[in-house]
Predict the 3D structure of the following.
Amino acid sequence: MSRTVQITFDCGDPAALAAFWAAALHYQVQSPPPGFASWDAALEAWGVPPEHRNDAPAAVDPEGSGPRLFFQKVPEGKQAKNRVHLDVRAAPDLQGDARMAALETEAERLSGLGATREQRFEPEPPMGAGHIVMRDPEGNEFCLD
């Protein structure tokens, strides 16, 4: 029996990071449960105090095939390099200059959303197709692949 996965991010501002990753991956911030017009309305009805209403948003694939991304508020900031990171497959079927141009276009788009560009790795055939290392708005490393 196969299992589904959820990717969890520890962060300082879950709503902002959920919005970034939703835009980065063409996901959407998860809608409130049926019967509620907004998350604020649901959280109010459930008695969640205002200071905890940004503790646990999620982003989901609107087509339902990608993993759910969960963002949980933690008190501490990022301490070290990620041991696991996301590869955003922005140019999986391209090679050479066309691939790197597509990655550059995506790097520019994500920078406009708050990401930071770290380093470009040029293609090194036969095994290295080239990629760009970036950081999300809270400093988590990810690659444009």
Observations:
- The chain has three helices and eight strands.
- The two ends are 30 Å apart (CA to CA).
- The beta strands are 6-11, 28-29, 58-60, 68-73, 86-88, 116-121, 131-135, 141-144.
